[in-house]
Design goal:
Blueprint lengths: L3 E6 L6 H9 L8 E5 L2 E5 L6 E3 L3 E9 L2 H8 L8 H9 L9 E9 L4 E6 L8 E4 L3 E5 L2 H5 L10 H10 L13 E2 L4 E6 L2 E6 L12 H20 L7 E4 L4 H10 L7 E6 L8 H11 L2 E6 L2 H15 L8 H13 L4 E3 L4 H5 L3 H10 L6 H13 L7 H13 L13 H4 L1 H4 L2 H5 L5 H12 L5 H29 L2 E3 L5 H8 L7 E2 L2 E2 L1 H6 L6 H5 L9 H7 L1 H11 L2 H4 L8 H10 L5 H19 L2
Protein backbone atom coordinates (compact mmCIF):
# COMPACT_ATOMS: atom_id res chain seq x y z
CA UNK A 1 0.00 0.00 0.00
CA UNK A 2 1.23 3.50 -0.92
CA UNK A 3 0.68 5.50 2.26
CA UNK A 4 2.32 8.73 3.31
CA UNK A 5 1.25 11.29 5.88
CA UNK A 6 2.10 13.21 8.98
CA UNK A 7 1.31 15.76 11.64
CA UNK A 8 2.46 19.30 12.28
CA UNK A 9 1.69 20.72 15.73
CA UNK A 10 2.02 24.43 16.31
CA UNK A 11 2.25 24.34 20.11
CA UNK A 12 3.88 21.04 21.11
CA UNK A 13 6.16 18.31 19.71
CA UNK A 14 4.74 15.46 17.66
CA UNK A 15 5.12 11.94 19.08
CA UNK A 16 5.69 8.75 17.11
CA UNK A 17 2.72 6.95 18.76
CA UNK A 18 0.47 9.62 17.26
CA UNK A 19 1.79 8.77 13.79
CA UNK A 20 1.39 5.06 14.36
CA UNK A 21 -2.22 5.63 15.44
CA UNK A 22 -2.91 7.29 12.11
CA UNK A 23 -1.43 4.36 10.19
CA UNK A 24 -3.25 1.83 12.34
CA UNK A 25 -6.54 3.36 11.26
CA UNK A 26 -5.86 2.25 7.66
CA UNK A 27 -6.59 -1.48 7.29
CA UNK A 28 -3.59 -3.56 6.23
CA UNK A 29 -1.33 -0.53 5.89
CA UNK A 30 1.65 -2.41 7.26
CA UNK A 31 4.45 -1.12 9.44
CA UNK A 32 5.41 2.47 8.60
CA UNK A 33 8.71 4.27 8.74
CA UNK A 34 8.30 7.25 11.08
CA UNK A 35 10.41 10.36 11.50
CA UNK A 36 9.94 13.16 14.05
CA UNK A 37 11.65 16.53 14.01
CA UNK A 38 10.22 18.82 16.64
CA UNK A 39 6.90 20.17 15.42
CA UNK A 40 6.60 17.78 12.50
CA UNK A 41 6.18 14.03 12.33
CA UNK A 42 6.07 12.02 9.10
CA UNK A 43 5.28 8.43 8.18
CA UNK A 44 5.52 6.36 5.03
CA UNK A 45 5.07 2.77 3.94
CA UNK A 46 7.26 3.49 0.91
CA UNK A 47 11.04 3.29 0.69
CA UNK A 48 13.07 5.34 3.17
CA UNK A 49 14.48 7.53 0.38
CA UNK A 50 11.01 9.09 0.03
CA UNK A 51 11.83 11.25 3.07
CA UNK A 52 13.21 14.69 2.19
CA UNK A 53 15.67 16.40 4.51
CA UNK A 54 18.02 19.38 4.60
CA UNK A 55 19.01 21.51 7.61
CA UNK A 56 15.99 23.79 7.02
CA UNK A 57 13.46 21.52 5.31
CA UNK A 58 11.85 18.21 6.23
CA UNK A 59 9.31 16.34 4.17
CA UNK A 60 8.27 13.27 2.29
CA UNK A 61 6.84 12.45 -1.09
CA UNK A 62 5.22 9.78 -3.23
CA UNK A 63 6.76 10.47 -6.62
CA UNK A 64 6.52 8.93 -10.07
CA UNK A 65 8.08 11.73 -12.10
CA UNK A 66 8.85 11.58 -15.79
CA UNK A 67 11.42 14.42 -15.68
CA UNK A 68 13.60 13.27 -12.79
CA UNK A 69 16.80 13.50 -14.85
CA UNK A 70 16.13 17.15 -15.71
CA UNK A 71 15.41 17.99 -12.06
CA UNK A 72 18.54 16.22 -10.85
CA UNK A 73 20.63 18.09 -13.40
CA UNK A 74 19.08 21.36 -12.27
CA UNK A 75 19.70 20.78 -8.56
CA UNK A 76 22.80 18.57 -8.56
CA UNK A 77 20.99 16.06 -6.34
CA UNK A 78 21.88 12.43 -7.03
CA UNK A 79 19.56 9.63 -8.05
CA UNK A 80 19.38 8.03 -4.59
CA UNK A 81 19.35 11.25 -2.59
CA UNK A 82 16.04 11.87 -0.85
CA UNK A 83 16.43 15.65 -0.96
CA UNK A 84 15.33 16.42 -4.52
CA UNK A 85 12.17 18.32 -3.60
CA UNK A 86 13.90 20.06 -0.70
CA UNK A 87 16.62 21.24 -3.09
CA UNK A 88 14.01 22.47 -5.57
CA UNK A 89 12.20 24.29 -2.78
CA UNK A 90 15.43 25.95 -1.66
CA UNK A 91 15.97 27.09 -5.24
CA UNK A 92 12.47 28.23 -6.28
CA UNK A 93 10.36 28.44 -3.13
CA UNK A 94 6.81 27.12 -3.32
CA UNK A 95 6.78 27.64 -7.09
CA UNK A 96 9.11 24.67 -7.57
CA UNK A 97 5.98 22.51 -8.02
CA UNK A 98 5.58 23.96 -11.51
CA UNK A 99 8.72 22.10 -12.56
CA UNK A 100 7.35 18.66 -11.66
CA UNK A 101 5.94 16.37 -14.34
CA UNK A 102 4.22 13.08 -13.65
CA UNK A 103 2.45 11.76 -10.57
CA UNK A 104 3.26 13.20 -7.16
CA UNK A 105 2.05 14.01 -3.69
CA UNK A 106 4.38 15.71 -1.22
CA UNK A 107 4.65 17.48 2.12
CA UNK A 108 7.49 19.90 2.91
CA UNK A 109 8.04 21.60 6.26
CA UNK A 110 10.09 24.80 6.24
CA UNK A 111 11.57 24.76 9.74
CA UNK A 112 12.89 28.31 9.58
CA UNK A 113 9.64 29.93 8.40
CA UNK A 114 7.39 27.34 10.07
CA UNK A 115 5.43 26.78 6.86
CA UNK A 116 3.96 23.48 5.68
CA UNK A 117 3.52 22.98 1.94
CA UNK A 118 1.32 20.17 0.59
CA UNK A 119 1.00 19.50 -3.13
CA UNK A 120 -0.45 17.03 -5.62
CA UNK A 121 0.01 16.60 -9.35
CA UNK A 122 -1.77 18.38 -12.18
CA UNK A 123 -4.71 16.00 -12.66
CA UNK A 124 -5.06 13.98 -9.46
CA UNK A 125 -3.08 10.79 -10.06
CA UNK A 126 -1.87 11.03 -6.45
CA UNK A 127 -4.04 12.26 -3.57
CA UNK A 128 -3.64 14.02 -0.25
CA UNK A 129 -6.29 14.52 2.43
CA UNK A 130 -5.98 16.90 5.36
CA UNK A 131 -7.67 18.52 8.33
CA UNK A 132 -6.39 21.68 9.96
CA UNK A 133 -7.18 23.62 13.13
CA UNK A 134 -5.47 26.09 15.45
CA UNK A 135 -3.43 23.33 17.15
CA UNK A 136 -2.27 21.07 14.33
CA UNK A 137 -2.67 19.82 10.78
CA UNK A 138 -2.95 16.12 9.93
CA UNK A 139 -2.50 14.91 6.36
CA UNK A 140 -2.19 11.62 4.51
CA UNK A 141 -2.72 9.97 1.16
CA UNK A 142 -5.66 8.01 2.65
CA UNK A 143 -8.52 9.77 4.43
CA UNK A 144 -8.88 7.09 7.11
CA UNK A 145 -5.33 7.89 8.28
CA UNK A 146 -6.34 11.52 8.81
CA UNK A 147 -9.35 10.38 10.84
CA UNK A 148 -6.91 8.47 13.07
CA UNK A 149 -5.05 11.65 14.04
CA UNK A 150 -5.38 13.13 17.55
CA UNK A 151 -8.53 15.16 18.08
CA UNK A 152 -10.18 14.32 14.72
CA UNK A 153 -13.82 13.36 15.04
CA UNK A 154 -14.88 10.17 13.26
CA UNK A 155 -18.05 11.32 11.52
CA UNK A 156 -19.48 10.84 8.02
CA UNK A 157 -20.08 14.03 6.04
CA UNK A 158 -23.75 13.74 5.00
CA UNK A 159 -23.35 16.25 2.18
CA UNK A 160 -20.49 14.14 0.83
CA UNK A 161 -22.81 11.11 0.99
CA UNK A 162 -25.38 13.01 -1.07
CA UNK A 163 -22.70 14.04 -3.57
CA UNK A 164 -21.54 10.44 -3.78
CA UNK A 165 -25.05 9.08 -4.42
CA UNK A 166 -25.31 11.39 -7.43
CA UNK A 167 -21.78 11.30 -8.85
CA UNK A 168 -20.74 7.78 -7.82
CA UNK A 169 -17.64 9.29 -6.17
CA UNK A 170 -16.89 12.09 -3.71
CA UNK A 171 -15.79 15.19 -5.66
CA UNK A 172 -12.94 17.35 -4.38
CA UNK A 173 -12.43 19.18 -2.12
CA UNK A 174 -14.69 17.07 0.10
CA UNK A 175 -13.95 13.64 1.47
CA UNK A 176 -16.45 11.22 2.96
CA UNK A 177 -15.31 12.28 6.44
CA UNK A 178 -16.63 15.48 8.02
CA UNK A 179 -13.85 18.03 8.43
CA UNK A 180 -11.40 16.13 6.22
CA UNK A 181 -10.66 17.72 2.85
CA UNK A 182 -8.97 16.52 -0.31
CA UNK A 183 -6.37 18.70 -1.95
CA UNK A 184 -7.68 19.45 -5.47
CA UNK A 185 -5.47 18.50 -8.43
CA UNK A 186 -3.14 21.23 -9.61
CA UNK A 187 -3.09 22.89 -6.16
CA UNK A 188 -0.80 23.40 -3.21
CA UNK A 189 -1.91 24.01 0.36
CA UNK A 190 0.18 26.49 2.34
CA UNK A 191 -0.23 26.28 6.12
CA UNK A 192 1.29 28.60 8.70
CA UNK A 193 0.40 28.66 12.40
CA UNK A 194 -2.98 27.05 11.81
CA UNK A 195 -3.94 29.30 8.91
CA UNK A 196 -4.28 27.52 5.57
CA UNK A 197 -4.77 28.74 2.03
CA UNK A 198 -5.18 26.89 -1.26
CA UNK A 199 -3.29 28.09 -4.31
CA UNK A 200 -3.54 26.71 -7.86
CA UNK A 201 -0.32 26.20 -9.77
CA UNK A 202 -1.86 24.64 -12.89
CA UNK A 203 -5.10 24.85 -14.82
CA UNK A 204 -5.87 24.37 -18.48
CA UNK A 205 -6.75 27.47 -20.48
CA UNK A 206 -8.73 27.18 -23.70
CA UNK A 207 -7.29 29.98 -25.82
CA UNK A 208 -8.82 28.46 -28.99
CA UNK A 209 -6.39 30.10 -31.39
CA UNK A 210 -6.82 30.01 -35.18
CA UNK A 211 -4.69 27.15 -36.49
CA UNK A 212 -3.86 25.27 -39.64
CA UNK A 213 -5.46 21.84 -39.49
CA UNK A 214 -2.57 19.96 -41.09
CA UNK A 215 0.11 21.59 -38.97
CA UNK A 216 -1.92 21.01 -35.83
CA UNK A 217 -2.38 17.33 -36.69
CA UNK A 218 1.37 16.94 -37.26
CA UNK A 219 2.18 18.59 -33.95
CA UNK A 220 -0.42 16.43 -32.19
CA UNK A 221 1.24 13.25 -33.48
CA UNK A 222 4.65 14.46 -32.35
CA UNK A 223 3.57 15.56 -28.87
CA UNK A 224 1.60 12.37 -28.27
CA UNK A 225 4.53 10.20 -29.32
CA UNK A 226 6.88 12.20 -27.09
CA UNK A 227 4.45 11.82 -24.17
CA UNK A 228 4.35 8.05 -24.62
CA UNK A 229 8.14 7.97 -24.78
CA UNK A 230 8.44 9.94 -21.55
CA UNK A 231 5.93 7.64 -19.86
CA UNK A 232 7.96 4.59 -20.88
CA UNK A 233 11.09 6.13 -19.42
CA UNK A 234 13.40 3.72 -21.21
CA UNK A 235 12.02 0.65 -19.44
CA UNK A 236 12.67 -2.79 -20.85
CA UNK A 237 10.01 -4.42 -23.01
CA UNK A 238 9.55 -7.30 -20.58
CA UNK A 239 8.39 -5.09 -17.70
CA UNK A 240 6.09 -2.54 -19.35
CA UNK A 241 2.68 -3.01 -20.94
CA UNK A 242 -0.59 -1.24 -21.67
CA UNK A 243 -4.28 -1.48 -20.92
CA UNK A 244 -6.05 -2.22 -24.21
CA UNK A 245 -9.81 -1.84 -24.46
CA UNK A 246 -9.77 -1.70 -28.25
CA UNK A 247 -10.86 1.95 -28.26
CA UNK A 248 -9.04 4.83 -29.89
CA UNK A 249 -7.05 6.05 -26.88
CA UNK A 250 -5.69 2.74 -25.59
CA UNK A 251 -5.00 1.66 -29.18
CA UNK A 252 -3.10 4.89 -29.87
CA UNK A 253 -0.98 4.34 -26.77
CA UNK A 254 -0.22 0.75 -27.84
CA UNK A 255 0.59 1.84 -31.39
CA UNK A 256 3.00 4.56 -30.27
CA UNK A 257 4.63 2.28 -27.69
CA UNK A 258 5.64 0.08 -30.61
CA UNK A 259 8.00 2.83 -31.76
CA UNK A 260 9.99 2.53 -28.52
CA UNK A 261 9.94 -1.16 -27.53
CA UNK A 262 10.58 -4.39 -29.38
CA UNK A 263 7.06 -5.74 -28.93
CA UNK A 264 4.24 -4.20 -26.93
CA UNK A 265 2.58 -6.19 -24.16
CA UNK A 266 -1.17 -5.45 -24.24
CA UNK A 267 -3.72 -6.54 -21.64
CA UNK A 268 -7.49 -6.82 -22.03
CA UNK A 269 -10.47 -8.25 -20.20
CA UNK A 270 -13.74 -9.52 -21.59
CA UNK A 271 -17.05 -10.90 -20.43
CA UNK A 272 -19.39 -13.72 -21.35
CA UNK A 273 -22.14 -11.16 -21.75
CA UNK A 274 -21.80 -10.30 -25.43
CA UNK A 275 -23.07 -6.73 -25.21
CA UNK A 276 -20.20 -5.90 -22.83
CA UNK A 277 -17.42 -7.93 -24.41
CA UNK A 278 -14.90 -5.82 -26.34
CA UNK A 279 -12.19 -8.43 -26.78
CA UNK A 280 -12.84 -8.56 -30.52
CA UNK A 281 -11.88 -4.91 -30.96
CA UNK A 282 -8.93 -5.28 -28.60
CA UNK A 283 -7.71 -8.22 -30.67
CA UNK A 284 -8.02 -6.18 -33.86
CA UNK A 285 -5.78 -3.48 -32.38
CA UNK A 286 -3.30 -5.98 -30.96
CA UNK A 287 -3.04 -7.77 -34.29
CA UNK A 288 -2.75 -4.47 -36.16
CA UNK A 289 0.28 -3.48 -34.08
CA UNK A 290 1.80 -6.94 -33.67
CA UNK A 291 1.40 -6.73 -29.90
CA UNK A 292 1.64 -9.66 -27.51
CA UNK A 293 -1.97 -9.80 -26.36
CA UNK A 294 -2.97 -11.23 -22.98
CA UNK A 295 -6.67 -11.62 -22.16
CA UNK A 296 -8.94 -12.77 -19.35
CA UNK A 297 -12.67 -13.37 -19.04
CA UNK A 298 -14.18 -11.79 -15.91
CA UNK A 299 -17.25 -13.40 -14.35
CA UNK A 300 -19.76 -12.49 -11.66
CA UNK A 301 -18.00 -14.90 -9.31
CA UNK A 302 -14.74 -13.03 -9.93
CA UNK A 303 -16.46 -9.77 -9.05
CA UNK A 304 -17.82 -11.22 -5.81
CA UNK A 305 -14.36 -12.48 -4.90
CA UNK A 306 -12.60 -9.14 -5.40
CA UNK A 307 -15.29 -6.87 -3.97
CA UNK A 308 -14.03 -6.69 -0.36
CA UNK A 309 -10.54 -5.84 -1.59
CA UNK A 310 -11.87 -3.06 -3.83
CA UNK A 311 -13.83 -1.54 -0.97
CA UNK A 312 -10.68 -1.48 1.11
CA UNK A 313 -8.47 -0.19 -1.70
CA UNK A 314 -10.48 2.97 -2.27
CA UNK A 315 -10.81 3.95 1.40
CA UNK A 316 -13.92 5.92 0.42
CA UNK A 317 -17.18 4.81 -1.21
CA UNK A 318 -16.51 4.51 -4.93
CA UNK A 319 -19.21 3.40 -7.34
CA UNK A 320 -17.49 3.04 -10.71
CA UNK A 321 -18.33 -0.51 -11.84
CA UNK A 322 -15.43 -0.60 -14.30
CA UNK A 323 -13.04 -0.80 -11.35
CA UNK A 324 -13.70 -4.55 -11.52
CA UNK A 325 -12.44 -4.79 -15.09
CA UNK A 326 -9.49 -2.50 -14.39
CA UNK A 327 -8.43 -4.62 -11.42
CA UNK A 328 -8.46 -7.93 -13.26
CA UNK A 329 -6.67 -6.40 -16.24
CA UNK A 330 -3.94 -5.00 -13.97
CA UNK A 331 -3.68 -8.27 -12.08
CA UNK A 332 -3.24 -10.14 -15.37
CA UNK A 333 -0.39 -7.77 -16.24
CA UNK A 334 1.22 -8.34 -12.84
CA UNK A 335 0.98 -12.10 -13.30
CA UNK A 336 2.77 -11.69 -16.63
CA UNK A 337 5.67 -9.85 -15.01
CA UNK A 338 4.74 -6.24 -15.76
CA UNK A 339 5.96 -3.48 -13.45
CA UNK A 340 4.30 -0.56 -15.25
CA UNK A 341 1.17 -0.17 -17.37
CA UNK A 342 0.32 2.74 -19.65
CA UNK A 343 -3.32 3.79 -19.79
CA UNK A 344 -5.23 5.90 -22.31
CA UNK A 345 -7.35 7.85 -19.83
CA UNK A 346 -7.82 11.53 -20.67
CA UNK A 347 -8.14 11.23 -24.44
CA UNK A 348 -11.89 11.78 -24.55
CA UNK A 349 -11.58 14.87 -22.41
CA UNK A 350 -8.86 16.58 -24.45
CA UNK A 351 -9.72 15.39 -27.98
CA UNK A 352 -13.52 15.59 -27.76
CA UNK A 353 -14.37 11.89 -27.75
CA UNK A 354 -17.21 11.53 -25.27
CA UNK A 355 -20.62 10.74 -26.75
CA UNK A 356 -22.13 13.29 -24.36
CA UNK A 357 -20.43 16.10 -26.30
CA UNK A 358 -22.20 15.07 -29.48
CA UNK A 359 -25.52 14.65 -27.66
CA UNK A 360 -25.23 18.11 -26.15
CA UNK A 361 -24.64 19.53 -29.63
CA UNK A 362 -27.96 17.98 -30.71
CA UNK A 363 -29.80 19.68 -27.85
CA UNK A 364 -27.99 22.97 -28.42
CA UNK A 365 -29.27 23.07 -32.01
CA UNK A 366 -32.78 23.70 -30.72
CA UNK A 367 -31.64 27.18 -29.71
CA UNK A 368 -30.97 27.99 -33.37
CA UNK A 369 -34.72 28.11 -33.98
CA UNK A 370 -35.93 31.72 -33.64
CA UNK A 371 -37.00 32.45 -30.07
CA UNK A 372 -40.42 33.70 -31.13
CA UNK A 373 -41.14 30.49 -33.02
CA UNK A 374 -40.07 28.40 -30.03
CA UNK A 375 -42.01 30.42 -27.48
CA UNK A 376 -45.21 31.06 -29.41
CA UNK A 377 -45.71 27.91 -31.46
CA UNK A 378 -43.48 24.91 -30.71
CA UNK A 379 -43.52 24.94 -26.93
CA UNK A 380 -47.20 25.86 -26.38
CA UNK A 381 -48.21 23.02 -28.67
CA UNK A 382 -45.82 20.32 -27.42
CA UNK A 383 -45.74 21.11 -23.72
CA UNK A 384 -49.49 21.50 -23.25
CA UNK A 385 -50.52 18.21 -24.81
CA UNK A 386 -51.83 15.51 -22.52
CA UNK A 387 -50.03 12.32 -21.57
CA UNK A 388 -51.68 10.15 -24.22
CA UNK A 389 -49.66 11.21 -27.27
CA UNK A 390 -47.85 9.28 -30.02
CA UNK A 391 -44.33 8.14 -29.20
CA UNK A 392 -42.74 10.53 -31.69
CA UNK A 393 -44.55 13.50 -30.15
CA UNK A 394 -43.50 12.42 -26.67
CA UNK A 395 -39.86 12.22 -27.79
CA UNK A 396 -40.10 15.71 -29.29
CA UNK A 397 -41.56 17.05 -26.05
CA UNK A 398 -38.79 15.48 -23.97
CA UNK A 399 -36.23 16.88 -26.41
CA UNK A 400 -37.60 20.41 -26.01
CA UNK A 401 -37.69 20.16 -22.23
CA UNK A 402 -34.09 19.02 -22.01
CA UNK A 403 -32.91 21.51 -24.64
CA UNK A 404 -34.33 24.33 -22.51
CA UNK A 405 -32.22 23.34 -19.51
CA UNK A 406 -29.07 25.52 -19.43
CA UNK A 407 -25.68 23.91 -19.06
CA UNK A 408 -24.13 22.51 -16.98
CA UNK A 409 -27.42 21.15 -15.58
CA UNK A 410 -28.40 19.83 -19.02
CA UNK A 411 -25.10 17.97 -19.26
CA UNK A 412 -25.94 16.12 -16.04
CA UNK A 413 -29.73 15.93 -16.44
CA UNK A 414 -29.73 12.15 -17.00
CA UNK A 415 -27.33 11.42 -14.15
CA UNK A 416 -28.49 12.98 -10.89
CA UNK A 417 -31.46 10.71 -10.21
CA UNK A 418 -31.09 10.88 -6.43
CA UNK A 419 -31.09 14.69 -6.52
CA UNK A 420 -34.01 14.82 -8.93
CA UNK A 421 -36.08 12.27 -7.00
CA UNK A 422 -34.95 13.23 -3.50
CA UNK A 423 -38.51 13.67 -2.20
CA UNK A 424 -39.43 10.12 -3.24
CA UNK A 425 -36.16 8.38 -2.35
CA UNK A 426 -34.52 10.02 0.64
CA UNK A 427 -35.36 10.04 4.32
CA UNK A 428 -36.75 13.45 5.44
CA UNK A 429 -34.16 13.80 8.21
CA UNK A 430 -31.34 13.11 5.78
CA UNK A 431 -32.76 15.69 3.35
CA UNK A 432 -32.98 18.25 6.14
CA UNK A 433 -29.28 17.78 6.93
CA UNK A 434 -28.00 18.42 3.38
CA UNK A 435 -28.13 21.02 0.64
CA UNK A 436 -30.03 19.31 -2.16
CA UNK A 437 -28.53 21.66 -4.73
CA UNK A 438 -24.96 20.65 -3.79
CA UNK A 439 -24.22 18.34 -6.78
CA UNK A 440 -25.32 21.07 -9.16
CA UNK A 441 -23.22 23.61 -7.26
CA UNK A 442 -20.17 21.38 -7.77
CA UNK A 443 -20.59 21.21 -11.54
CA UNK A 444 -21.60 24.87 -11.79
CA UNK A 445 -18.45 25.90 -9.94
CA UNK A 446 -16.19 24.08 -12.40
CA UNK A 447 -18.23 25.30 -15.36
CA UNK A 448 -17.92 28.91 -14.24
CA UNK A 449 -14.16 28.60 -13.61
CA UNK A 450 -13.43 27.24 -17.08
CA UNK A 451 -11.28 29.68 -19.05
CA UNK A 452 -13.07 28.94 -22.31
CA UNK A 453 -15.13 30.87 -24.84
CA UNK A 454 -17.10 27.93 -26.24
CA UNK A 455 -19.64 25.64 -24.63
CA UNK A 456 -17.79 22.53 -25.77
CA UNK A 457 -14.56 23.41 -24.00
CA UNK A 458 -16.44 24.24 -20.81
CA UNK A 459 -17.89 20.72 -20.90
CA UNK A 460 -14.45 19.24 -21.57
CA UNK A 461 -13.14 21.17 -18.58
CA UNK A 462 -15.94 19.76 -16.43
CA UNK A 463 -14.95 16.25 -17.42
CA UNK A 464 -11.24 16.85 -16.80
CA UNK A 465 -12.06 17.96 -13.26
CA UNK A 466 -14.76 15.42 -12.42
CA UNK A 467 -14.67 12.40 -14.75
CA UNK A 468 -10.85 12.35 -14.81
CA UNK A 469 -9.64 14.02 -11.60
CA UNK A 470 -12.28 12.62 -9.25
CA UNK A 471 -13.26 9.36 -10.94
CA UNK A 472 -11.23 7.64 -13.65
CA UNK A 473 -7.71 8.24 -12.35
CA UNK A 474 -8.80 7.12 -8.89
CA UNK A 475 -10.30 3.99 -10.40
CA UNK A 476 -7.21 3.00 -12.36
CA UNK A 477 -4.49 3.96 -9.87
CA UNK A 478 -6.04 2.16 -6.91
CA UNK A 479 -6.84 -1.02 -8.85
CA UNK A 480 -3.32 -1.03 -10.31
CA UNK A 481 -1.83 -0.55 -6.85
CA UNK A 482 -3.99 -3.37 -5.52
CA UNK A 483 -2.77 -5.59 -8.35
CA UNK A 484 0.89 -4.72 -7.75
CA UNK A 485 1.72 -2.60 -10.81
CA UNK A 486 2.35 1.10 -11.41
CA UNK A 487 0.37 3.04 -14.01
CA UNK A 488 1.12 6.09 -16.10
CA UNK A 489 -1.15 8.28 -18.25
CA UNK A 490 0.70 9.70 -21.28
CA UNK A 491 -2.37 11.43 -22.71
CA UNK A 492 -2.43 13.60 -19.58
CA UNK A 493 1.07 14.91 -20.18
CA UNK A 494 0.67 18.65 -19.39
CA UNK A 495 2.35 19.75 -22.62
CA UNK A 496 -0.11 17.69 -24.67
CA UNK A 497 -3.15 18.81 -22.66
CA UNK A 498 -2.14 22.47 -22.89
CA UNK A 499 -1.63 22.13 -26.65
CA UNK A 500 -5.19 20.84 -27.16
CA UNK A 501 -6.42 23.87 -25.21
CA UNK A 502 -5.16 26.11 -28.04
CA UNK A 503 -7.28 24.34 -30.68
CA UNK A 504 -10.42 25.80 -32.17
CA UNK A 505 -13.37 23.90 -30.69
CA UNK A 506 -14.33 22.56 -34.12
CA UNK A 507 -11.06 20.58 -34.18
CA UNK A 508 -12.55 18.48 -31.37
CA UNK A 509 -16.21 18.12 -32.34
CA UNK A 510 -17.10 19.32 -35.82
CA UNK A 511 -20.81 19.26 -36.41
CA UNK A 512 -21.70 15.93 -34.83
CA UNK A 513 -18.36 14.26 -35.54
CA UNK A 514 -16.30 13.58 -32.41
CA UNK A 515 -12.50 13.60 -32.35
CA UNK A 516 -12.40 15.37 -35.68
CA UNK A 517 -8.72 16.33 -35.73
CA UNK A 518 -7.59 13.32 -33.71
CA UNK A 519 -8.98 10.92 -36.31
CA UNK A 520 -7.22 12.76 -39.10
CA UNK A 521 -3.94 12.87 -37.20
CA UNK A 522 -3.90 9.15 -36.35
CA UNK A 523 -5.69 7.75 -39.39
CA UNK A 524 -2.51 6.12 -40.63
CA UNK A 525 -1.68 4.66 -37.21
CA UNK A 526 -4.96 3.06 -36.14
CA UNK A 527 -6.90 0.22 -37.68
CA UNK A 528 -10.02 1.34 -39.63
CA UNK A 529 -12.23 -0.69 -37.29
CA UNK A 530 -10.78 1.16 -34.30
CA UNK A 531 -11.50 4.56 -35.81
CA UNK A 532 -15.07 3.52 -36.61
CA UNK A 533 -16.04 1.86 -33.32
CA UNK A 534 -18.23 3.46 -30.69
CA UNK A 535 -16.71 4.19 -27.31
CA UNK A 536 -17.13 1.44 -24.72
CA UNK A 537 -14.13 1.33 -22.36
CA UNK A 538 -14.01 -1.23 -19.55
CA UNK A 539 -17.78 -1.43 -19.04
CA UNK A 540 -18.73 -4.22 -16.62
CA UNK A 541 -22.07 -6.13 -16.69
CA UNK A 542 -22.91 -5.69 -13.01
CA UNK A 543 -26.48 -4.73 -13.96
CA UNK A 544 -26.88 -7.98 -15.89
CA UNK A 545 -25.44 -10.01 -13.01
CA UNK A 546 -27.86 -8.27 -10.67
CA UNK A 547 -30.68 -9.86 -12.68
CA UNK A 548 -29.24 -13.15 -13.86
CA UNK A 549 -26.71 -14.36 -11.29
CA UNK A 550 -28.49 -15.67 -8.17
CA UNK A 551 -25.54 -15.31 -5.81
CA UNK A 552 -24.69 -11.82 -7.04
CA UNK A 553 -28.32 -10.72 -6.83
CA UNK A 554 -28.71 -12.15 -3.35
CA UNK A 555 -25.56 -10.42 -2.11
CA UNK A 556 -26.74 -7.01 -3.30
CA UNK A 557 -30.28 -7.40 -1.99
CA UNK A 558 -29.14 -8.78 1.35
CA UNK A 559 -26.75 -5.86 1.85
CA UNK A 560 -29.10 -3.06 0.80
CA UNK A 561 -32.33 -4.35 2.32
CA UNK A 562 -30.81 -5.39 5.64
CA UNK A 563 -31.82 -3.73 8.94
CA UNK A 564 -28.24 -2.54 9.23
CA UNK A 565 -28.47 -0.62 5.97
CA UNK A 566 -31.90 0.80 6.78
CA UNK A 567 -30.53 2.20 10.04
CA UNK A 568 -28.16 4.45 8.12
CA UNK A 569 -31.14 6.73 7.60
CA UNK A 570 -30.42 7.72 4.00
CA UNK A 571 -33.46 6.28 2.22
CA UNK A 572 -37.18 6.23 2.83
CA UNK A 573 -38.77 2.86 3.63
CA UNK A 574 -39.46 1.05 0.38
CA UNK A 575 -37.27 3.33 -1.76
CA UNK A 576 -34.57 0.76 -2.49
CA UNK A 577 -37.20 -1.92 -3.13
CA UNK A 578 -38.64 0.38 -5.80
CA UNK A 579 -35.20 0.81 -7.35
CA UNK A 580 -34.86 -2.97 -7.56
CA UNK A 581 -38.28 -3.14 -9.24
CA UNK A 582 -37.32 -0.43 -11.71
CA UNK A 583 -34.11 -2.29 -12.51
CA UNK A 584 -35.94 -5.57 -13.07
CA UNK A 585 -38.22 -3.89 -15.59
CA UNK A 586 -35.54 -1.90 -17.41
CA UNK A 587 -33.39 -3.19 -20.25
CA UNK A 588 -30.68 -0.58 -19.63
CA UNK A 589 -28.06 -0.56 -16.83
CA UNK A 590 -29.40 2.76 -15.48
CA UNK A 591 -31.02 1.56 -12.25
CA UNK A 592 -28.50 -1.23 -11.82
CA UNK A 593 -25.68 1.31 -11.77
CA UNK A 594 -27.51 3.32 -9.11
CA UNK A 595 -27.98 0.20 -6.99
CA UNK A 596 -24.28 -0.57 -7.36
CA UNK A 597 -23.44 2.94 -6.17
CA UNK A 598 -25.59 2.46 -3.07
CA UNK A 599 -24.07 -0.99 -2.51
CA UNK A 600 -20.52 0.38 -2.47
CA UNK A 601 -21.56 3.02 0.06
CA UNK A 602 -23.05 0.36 2.34
CA UNK A 603 -20.02 -1.94 2.02
CA UNK A 604 -17.69 0.96 2.75
CA UNK A 605 -19.67 1.88 5.86
CA UNK A 606 -19.52 -1.70 7.10
CA UNK A 607 -15.75 -1.75 6.60
CA UNK A 608 -14.82 1.67 7.92
CA UNK A 609 -17.81 3.03 9.83
CA UNK A 610 -19.51 -0.01 11.46
Amino acid sequence: MRLIGGLVAWKQPVRIPQLRAMVKNVPDAGVPLCAVRGSIGLFSTLASDRFESTPDVSGLADLDLINTDDLQALTGVGQHDGSLLAALYARDGQHFVRRLRGAFAFALWDQRQRILLLGVDHFGIRRLYYTVNSDRIAFASRPSAVVGAPGVERRVDLTAVFDYLNFGYVPAPRSIHAGVHRLPPGHVLIVRDGSARLEPYFDITYSEQPADRGETATTLCRLTQEAVGRALGGRATKEVGAFLSGGTDSSTVVGLMGRFVDRVNAFSVGFREQQYDELGYAEISARHFGAAHYTRIVTADDALECLPRLVEAYDEPFGNTSAIGSFFCARLAHECGMAVLLAGDGGDEIFGGNERYRVDRIFARYRRIPAALRARIIEPVLLNLGDNVPRLVDRARRYVRRANIPNPRRFYSYEFLVAQEAAELLDPDFRAAIDEDEPYAVVQGHYDRAQAATELNRLLYLDLKLAIGDNDLFKVTRTAELAGVAVRFPLLDPSLVEFTGTWPAEFKVRGLEKRYLFKQAFQSLLAPETLAKRKHGFGVPTSVWLKSHPKFRAMVRDALLSPRARQRGYFQPGALERLFECHDGDATPYYGDILWTVLMLELWQRRYEP
